[in-house]
Design a protein that fits this description.
The chain contains 6 helices and no strands. By secondary structure, the protein is mainly α.
């Protein structure tokens, strides 16, 4: 099972790969990944950095595993998930800001940001209930 950091790093890798490569990324038999014309500066470098970060995180987590139990009644925005939720919230809001002039559906927002609809709803509901200053600095 992957943790929130790994999930976010994989999402970042996929987002940058969509910017770099002109092919389906979910084809396990893909042998050639044609590159798109230079669309966004630094996308390939970010893929490499995210992959390195992902691998380092995996090695550290599995070489020194710590079992964390979730306490009953603990809210979902406790200290364990605050950073990843903040990163996800900012990624989605940045995406929305960059598409202000476009008509996009919720399913497209979810697909492009690699987030489920219910998780997206929880994220924005929490930011509205608690206020952006408390949960999302």
């Amino acid at each position: 099972m992957i943790d929130d950091t790994e999930r976010n790093l994989l999402a970042d890798i996929i987002i940058e790969a969509r910017r770099c490569f002109d092919c389906r990324l979910d084809d396990p038999y893909l042998q050639n990944m044609p590159q798109k014309p230079a669309d966004m500066f630094g996308a390939q470098q970010l893929i490499r950095l995210y992959l390195e970060h992902f691998l380092i995180h995996l090695i550290r987590r599995h070489s020194n595993p710590v079992v964390l139990r979730r306490l009953p009644g603990r809210d979902s925005f406790g200290p364990m998930t605050k950073k990843s939720d903040t990163e996800l919230f900012h990624r989605v809001t940045d995406y929305l800001e960059s598409h202000l002039c476009s008509h996009i559906a919720i399913h497209q927002i979810c697909k492009d940001n690699l987030i489920g609809r219910s998780q997206l709803q929880k994220l924005f509901r929490a930011s509205a209930i608690w206020g952006s200053s408390n949960i999302f600095p």
